[in-house]
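Backbone geometry:
***
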Amino acid sequence: MKFMAVLGYVCLISGCASGNLNLYGQEGEKVGECTAGFDWHPIGVKHSVDWVLNYCYQLAISEGDNVKSVSDKSVIEKDYSYPLHKSGMPWNKKLAWSAFWSDEVNEVQYGYFVADLENEYHLKIMRVEEQLSVGAITQEQYKALLARARYAFHGK
């Protein structure tokens, strides 16, 4: 019984990771914070978290935030680039999964793909929901845009 409880707990927490990156200004004061977390993402999860933290940092810089240092410099010093898919098609979760299991990409790259894809998917969904809420698109257009975003994300 104890073995089953431990096994269940291990399965429950596998693929879960989170991270935090504090942003500091000129005088060392905290001017922002980035957080990231993934659940049920067993491969490359730490790399996905780092990708999101770096994205948040880059977004703060692009928006003109006065960020002079961070709590973990290694997060912003990594190269988050990854190769194009050999077919020339845009990456989606299905292609990334297949490329990982056929050793075309490594765990680090896979983690970056998943984070980038999930981030882009959520940004698309937020834009579409905003357009619907202000009446810029119809309910039918909303449904079609959601379906396109899901297809671009999952690749099904």
